[in-house]
User: Fold this.
Amino acid sequence: MQHDLQLRAAARVIYDACYPTEDWAPVGFDEAERYATVHYRQAVGAAQQARAVLASCGEQLTLPALV
Assistant:
């Protein structure tokens, strides 16, 4: 997903919101992405679904800058 930076950023925001601590996911986003964990795949799927919904509504997916 390195070629789609906006989708990757959306997946990171979703991942961090859904899995805020080690109680929810054992690794952070970057490591989850590297190993394609189930948590990562779910976040990517959610980002793709959100993009599709927003596109059908004529909205553009914009995200806050990540630190």
Q: What stands out?
A: The helical segments are 5-18, 29-35, 38-56.
